[in-house]
Amino acid sequence: MELFLDIASWILMSLGGVFVFIGGLGALRMPDLYTRMHAAGITDSIAPILIIPGLMLQAGLTLASVKLLAILVFLLLTGPTASNALASAALLAGNRSEQVKSTAVPESEE
Amino acid sequence: MTVIFGFFLLTLLLITAVAIVQSQNLFVSVMLSGMFSLLLAVNFFLLDAADVALTEAAVGAGISTVLLLSALAITAKHEKAPSSSRVGALIIVIIATLVLIYATLGNPQFADPNAPVHQHVAPWYLDKTAEAIDIPNVVTAVLGSFRGYDTLGEVFVVFTAGIGVLFLLGTQPGPFAQSNPFKLTDPKGLRHYLIPRVVGRMLIPFILLFGLYVQFHGEYGPGGGFQAGALIAAAIILFALLEGENSALKVIPRSVLIGLIAGGALLYGVVGLFGIFLGSNFLDYSVLSSNPVKGQQMGLLIIEAGVGITVTGVLLSIFHAFAARGKF
């Protein structure tokens, strides 16, 4: 049982780490602001969902698990909100995506 | 493992510091300095200094970033090109760096148990805390009781800094405040932005609750007045950003803020004077109650509250002073 829990928690944490890495890679390599945010924002939500339960399996039924759960809820609330605020701030500041310009609104602008 | 993490974090710190200096865009510099503080906080945590880490995260990464951003709102966004040659400055920096590196050669090894800092008064503090004050967090005992004078000094530094900033920026809104298009906080706040507003409103009570927990749990875990003051101020600044500065001023008006700044420092000092009136020394809490240990705990709770009140008042006043300031 102990071994099984350890394996499960390590799988969860490693998967979370992989997602963080993909997010970082996307934030560096994507062509413009919105696609970068997309990469970082989505992986930032999935990574805590994987990593924190992994840590909770390590902690067992203790107060630490409750605290980790609170951190997870906090991250799940604030992460997407921050992404949303960033995207709307960028849009308000007039930052238009190259892709949006070329595909989505070609007729209305030209 | 800790050492590897430490090296990794210190390397990142160095990269961030160079990036802060290199960046011409002040906004980027402010954001990077927030990151710098966060990395520093993690580093402190690795070294088992949870109290310092909490302070650095709350004040350095949280509040100072907001205050620097509000300062940016009334200045330019880009650094001015240097007007004169900077060779002299470079030489001074190189000499200072070499002197500092030379000084580190005399330091004890990392984690050396025979280092002077572990041999001097630290063992005495560790021995006496359980006996004299009976609280688990020795840091709070040292900070509030054994070295109460130092903390009183720190509170008065915060108090004086707050008064200084208010003298420079003024406590009342300037003549341009109402018509200023570049104001940091919209008078109406973020009413049009539904998602940040809803989530922010949901989080504010929990941030306040956590602030109070950090305030009154400082005897048992990492925390205390400085950290709690920063957290409570952060919750109210979040409210100001969401609902507009005027709503925040309705909750805690400027006059109350001035009272908080002076009141917290005064509370600390009065507890000290009580020691004298009850026939002991300044800032000796043992005489506050018939049981000296209970007296110490009571004294710590009150002075931590004083610290928290002053820090909250100063941080909020500085924020409002920046927010009310018009663009020149």
Summarize the structure.
With 110 residues, chain A is mostly helical. Chain A has helices at 2-29, 33-59, 63-92, 98-104, 106-109. Chain A has one domain.
Give your account of this protein's structure.
The complex is a heterodimer of chains A (110) and B (328). By secondary structure, chain A is an all-alpha fold. Chain A has five helices and no strands. Chain A has one domain (2-109). Chain A has helices at 2-29, 33-59, 63-92, 98-104, 106-109. The longest helix of chain A has 30 residues, at 63-92. Chain B has 328 residues and is mainly alpha-helical. Chain B has a domain at 121-328. Helix content of chain B is 72%, strand content 0%. Chain B is built from 13 helices and no strands. The N and C termini of chain B lie far apart (52 Å). Residues 177-182 of chain B have low confidence and may be disordered. Classes of the chains: A mainly alpha (110), B mainly alpha (328). Chains A and B meet through helix 3 of A and helix 9 of B.
Task: Provide keyphrases for this structure.
heterodimer, A: 110 residues, mainly alpha, elongated, disordered C terminus, B: 328 residues, 13 helices, 72% helix
C-alpha Rg of chain B, in Å?
22 Å
Give the H and E element order of chain B: HHHHHHHHHHHHH
Strands of chain B, total number: 0
Strand content of chain A: under 5%
Average pLDDT value of chain A?
A: 85
Which radius of gyration of chain A do the C-alpha atoms yield?
18 Å
Structural class category of chain B: mainly alpha
Oligomer: heterodimer
Largest interface: A-B, 7 and 8 residues
| Overall residue-averaged pLDDT value of chain B | 85
* Uncertain spans of chain A: 104-110
Q: Given the C-alpha coordinates, what overall shape of chain B results? A: globular
Helix fraction of chain B, binned, reads: over 70%
- Compute the number of strand runs of chain A: 0
**SSE string of chain A:** HHHHH
Whole-number tally of structural domains of chain A: 1
